[in-house]
């Protein structure tokens, strides 16, 4: 197990059926889960959860974030608006591994409509246990530079 122990976690209504199982799984494998709540089965808005998880990670309270909505897409789009966040939508083991290894993602976004609960748990574990490879740092630095320049305008 790696040394990442604090996770920020958020879901919308589309992930209602998987959220408790996923949260318990993360706690069972030793993570401290900061849960940003859930609105119930009625409709809620994924940006509300994405921004809280993203700010927790960007502010250093959590090491990494996990967001689940129907597809992971809306969560990723919203989380990526927060400075310092690299949120990646993943849909299988390879993408979960490479999001960390190549893209230095700090927030993993998954879909309850595109993966089973077992696949979701497995992808999270792979993501958390895969270190970033320094040989990709040049590209990540370029992304950070784009973020810096655009925010200065
Ligand atoms: C909610 O119906 C759905 O749009 C949301 O969970 C997510 O899939 C958006 O990207």
Strand-helix topology:
Elements: E1 6-11, H1 19-28, E2 32-35, H2 46-58, E3 64-69, H3 73-79, E4 87-89, H4 93-101, E5 107-111, H5 117-129, H6 137-152
Parallel strand pairs: 1-2, 1-3, 3-5, 4-5
Helix pairs in contact: 1-5, 2-3, 4-5
The structure holds D-ribose.
Question: Key terms for this structure?
Answer:
single chain; 153 residues; alpha/beta; Ribose 5-phosphate Isomerase B, Chain: A; 5-stranded parallel β-sheet; 6 helices; 5 strands; globular; binds D-ribose
Task: Describe the fold and architecture.
The chain contains six helices and five strands, in the order βαβαβαβαβαα. It has 153 residues and is α/β, with parallel strands linked by helices. The chain has one domain: Sugar-phosphate isomerase, RpiB/LacA/LacB (Ribose 5-phosphate Isomerase B, Chain: A, 3-Layer(aba) Sandwich). Strands 2-1-3-5-4 form a five-stranded parallel β-sheet, with helices on both faces. Helix 2 (46-58) packs across helix 3 and helix 4 packs parallel to helix 5 (117-129). The longest helix has 16 residues, at 137-152. The N and C termini lie far apart (42 Å).
């Amino acid at each position: 197990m790696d040394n990442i122990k604090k996770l920020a976690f958020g879901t919308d209504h589309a992930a209602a059926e998987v959220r408790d199982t996923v949260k318990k799984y993360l706690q069972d494998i030793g993570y401290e889960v900061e849960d940003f709540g859930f609105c119930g089965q009625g409709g809620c808005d994924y940006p509300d959860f994405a921004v809280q998880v993203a700010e927790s990670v960007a502010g250093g309270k959590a090491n990494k974030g996990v967001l689940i909505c129907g597809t992971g897409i809306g969560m990723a789009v919203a989380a990526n608006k927060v400075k310092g966040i690299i949120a990646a939508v993943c849909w299988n083991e390879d993408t979960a591994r490479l999001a960390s290894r190549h893209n230095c993602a700090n927030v993993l976004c998954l879909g309850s409509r595109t993966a089973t609960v077992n696949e979701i748990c497995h992808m999270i574990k792979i993501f958390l246990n895969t270190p970033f490879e320094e040989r990709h740092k040049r590209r990540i630095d370029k992304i950070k530079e784009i973020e810096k320049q655009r925010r200065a305008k």
